[in-house]
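Sample entry (389 residues):
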Amino acid sequence: MTAKKRPTSSASSPTEAIKARARQLGFDLVGIAPAERPVHADFYLDWLKHEYNGEMAYLDRDDAVERRLDPAKALPGARSIIMVAMNYAGGGDGPADDPSRAVLARYARAVDYHTVFEEKLAELESSIRELAGDKVKTRLYVDYGPVLERDHAQRAGLGWIGKNTCLINTELGSYIFIGEILTDAQLEPDDPFSLDHCGTCDRCIWACPTGAIEDARVLDARLCISYQTIELRGPIAIELRPAIGNRIFGCDICQEVCPWNKEAPQTSEPRFKPRDDISGPELIELMQLSEAEFDARFADAPLARAKRRGLLRNVAIALGNWGDRAALPALLGGLNDEDPLVRGHAAWALGRFDDPSAVKALEFRLEFEDDGWVRTEIGLALEGKPANE
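Predicted structure, serialized as tokens:
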């Protein structure tokens, strides 16, 4: 499937040949956008002005902003942007209703999608030189480059930006990865996707447990569970921890409630299929992972991005939200972890238990804890609890 295209003079033009090659490589969507200033440039600048990006400082560096607003800064002489997308839906909603098991965003339940996408984009990049000329310049990105990819994807006709800020396609929904190749080749652009199929629906806004979607298409990343559990490197705000539930890496809630995802097809890419060892793992098991075990298990998975300390921080919160006594031994181990980030969040989790052993462990740790932030977390966890005699 491709975006709706403008009439061309030749069915065998480089543009059509490139699109055909993209489909052969397994891309579900492909369209061409002009390499121009993004339509949503001013919106993006206003979003940064409100500091909705949180600690993602790489988004508002002067050079990065300039490149996002002018494709020619990323690739001198850029004329066209080839936008591609792949469906990754699969595996159901996960064990969201089983608080003893972890929930990960759908994309994180398989291998790192960057590996798959970069491989296919590199092949498409080679084909572009064959089809449009050896001297054509190109540059590819997979969600890490200075490109407003959803803006360009909409302009390339792949879909519209929904109220949850995700790109939504009428046939695939929003569980799609987006990639792009900038080129100085002059390709025929597709008609932009101009309709807004969200209508009056606002399910995503009301479903977000942390209220991260302030208004239609305005996401405060600082409140988003995906940001908190992946991008944030330090402590998660105390007031947000209960709302995270058992989601330890990313969040799909705003997509799960979207009507456009109800009939979305399953991915046809085998490497996007959920892995058994990542789909719904037991929280207690994850809390006991050593550094070596974490590296061995998740080296080729998106979870590696969080690092062990970030993952165990999130798992500690999930165990505290579960609140079952079976979680106590794992949390007591976390309270004595070598990383203060893990110890502090384990302390918070233990503070949610009305259990003498939890109080005793917190009091004992407080006696020799030398990290100021962890001591504060322990103190807050002990507030209102009777001291052990």
